[in-house]
Amino acid sequence: MSRSVGFLLFLVLTIGGGLAIGYITLPGEWYAGLVKPSFNPPNWIFAPVWTVLYIIIAIAGWRVWDLEMISAQRFWWAQLALNFLWSPTFFGFQQMGAALLVIALLLVSIIAFIRVTWEPDRASAVMFIPYLAWVAFATLLNASLYLLNPVA
After folding, report:
1. Which is a Gene Ontology cellular component entry for this protein (predicted)?
2. I need a labelling partner for 83 at 20 to 30 A (CA). Which of 5, 11, 94, 109 fits?
3. Burial (CB count within 10 angstroms: exposed 0-12, middle 13-18, buried 19+), residue 85
4. In sequence order, which residues have a C-beta less than 8 Å from that of residue 29 and are 6 or more positions away?
5. Is 149 left (phi over 0), alpha (psi -120 to 50) or beta?
6. Cβ distance 106 to 86 under 8 Å?
């Protein structure tokens, strides 16, 4: 497979998958009715932030694929699977506790990706730093929502 086709596939998979899952699991009434922490961002911010992050995630994934970095590829695929699992768990099944576990594992997989790519491909590692920051914030938000909205 050519490099440009590989790059295009990573973009389509990551951005397309992320946007599709986001569309299928729109927050809806349940989320609107939750008690939110004071630092909860407005809903409109999530789509543009995730779109930019998905582009960065795709580029980093393509780079470790192109460089044949097997260990980094494993963490990249793990983070993508966990990323795509979080929205259905939180919004679809409305399981904030399970979603907190998923996002904590996502955070660990992002950190592991950064760690294994730091020396051999610093650019990919650095690209994941904004993703790490956003997911750390999202983890705090998920935990806060879980604590503020006990299940009856």
Report:
1. membrane
2. 5
3. middle
4. none
5. beta
6. yes
Longest Cα separation, the chain: 54
Q: In the structure encoding, which two tokens stand for residue 125, read together?
A: 């590692």
b/e sequence 28-62, b meaning 16+ C-beta within 10 Å: eeeeeeeeeeeeeeeeeeeeeebeebbbbbbbbbb
Residue written as token pair 């592991």 = 112
Q: Which residue has the tokens 């006990």?
A: 150
Evaluate if residue 33 carries a pLDDT over 70.
Answer: yes
